[in-house]
Write a structure and sequence with these properties.
The two termini are 29 Å apart. It is globular and about 50 Å long. The protein folds into three domains: 69 residues, Uridine Diphospho-n-acetylenolpyruvylglucosamine Reductase, domain 2, CATH 3.30.43; 130 residues, Uridine Diphospho-n-acetylenolpyruvylglucosamine Reductase, domain 3 (2-Layer Sandwich); 81 residues, UDP-N-acetylenolpyruvoylglucosamine reductase, C-terminal domain (Uridine Diphospho-n-acetylenolpyruvylglucosamine Reductase, domain 1, Alpha-Beta Complex), CATH 3.90.78. It has seven helices and 20 strands. With 293 residues, it is of the alpha+beta class. It binds uridine-diphosphate-2(N-acetylglucosaminyl) butyric acid.
């Protein structure tokens, strides 16, 4: 169908936090052939491009945003590729939802992703943020990642050519802005029932400590070295703190939740208040994990 262009896309409809204004345009990629059209589009447009994924780690400003959103439509797959030693290589498009990949892995009897149960977002976003939970980071399961940039086109990069850090991914051989197109994961063949019980256990743990069904963008701040931002925010009195229709969750103080009708202005003011409270009490400046558009 070619590169799809959607005018005035609503950020509130495209983010799990459910707030924010309207961007100028959204370019939706349906297949690899659309990347050439994306390249032309980016040359033509002077707007700020941003790859949006499933919008689960984003806080978008209210009003009009002078931006071009880029999204990869849900691709077919995932697919099994081949055995590699004791592992099975699996290929998955970046536009796939992470929970969709996990569901497929469970049915296929492939282990490795269990601890990531309950993380929303796209597979591309999980690469770009090196999503992690309960000791597993997405990056450690990756054997190769296929990146696209206007200068280099599509290139496969081995995991050891990439840098995966705490909520960080980069690839020095593809400098500048790039888009994750596809990923190859190395998973372990296992009984589907065992994979399912691992996923259930991780989800149960998550549900006890995080507001998994609320409208949120996950943790707002990164954990500072050797500490939990949630604990610092809690001790600084931010748990349950409300402003308008936004609040820090009363289950976990590092989750900002939209109670319904919340605005970016309210969210940003709460973030500011929280940062000041933690700085005053602990002399620590929290760094945002959520991407502010
Ligand atoms: N804690 C409090 N009060 C709170 C929240 C937490 O006292 O309001 C305490 C807990 O009792 C615990 C400690 O802080 O002793 C750590 O809490 P938790 O186990 O919930 O982990 P976290 O450090 O707050 C991190 C990640 C989460 C990830 C969990 C589980 C960050 C910023 N957060 O949370 O990731 O799901 O570990 O692995 O790295 C995310 O990145 O969006 C995210 C949610």
């Amino acid at each position: 169908m070619g590169l799809e262009l959607i005018r005035n896309p609503s950020l509130a409809e495209r983010t799990t936090l459910g707030l924010g204004g309207v961007a100028e345009v959204e370019a939706v990629l349906h297949e690899a052939a659309d990347l050439d059209a994306l390249s032309e589009f980016l040359t033509r447009e002077t707007l700020r491009p941003f790859v949006i994924g499933q919008g689960s780690n984003l806080l978008a400003h209210d009003g009009h945003l002078d931006m071009a959103l880029i999204r990869t439509a849900t691709p077919p797959g995932p697919t099994r590729v081949e055995k590699s030693g004791s592992k099975l290589l699996v290929r998955c498009g970046a536009g796939q939802r992470l929970p969709g990949l996990l569901g497929w892995a469970q049915r296929a009897g492939l282990s490795g992703l269990e601890n990531l149960t309950g993380i929303p977002g796209s597979v591309g976003g999980a690469v770009a943020m090196n999503a992690g939970s309960y000791g597993t980071e997405f990056g450690e399961l990756i054997s190769r990642v296929r990146l696209w940039s206007p200068m280099q086109g599509l290139v496969w990069m081995d995991a050891d050519q990439c840098t995966f850090g705490y909520r960080h991914f980069s690839c020095p051989a593809v400098p500048g802005k790039s888009l994750v197109w596809e990923v190859e994961l190395a998973l372990i063949e296992m009984n589907p029932k065992s994979v399912r019980s691992g996923m259930r256990a991780a989800y149960a743990k998550k549900r006890e400590t995080q507001p998994v069904t609320a409208r949120s963008a996950g943790c707002v701040f990164k954990n500072p070295e050797g500490a939990s931002a949630g604990m610092l925010l809690d001790k600084a009195g931010m748990k349950g703190r409300r402003l308008g229709h936004m609040a820090f969750s009363d289950i976990h103080a590092n989750f900002l939740v939209n109670l319904g009708g919340g605005t970016a202005a309210q969210a940003l003011e709460l973030i500011d208040t929280a940062r000041k409270a933690v700085r005053e009490k602990f002399d620590t400046t929290l760094e945002a994990e959520v991407i502010i558009l």
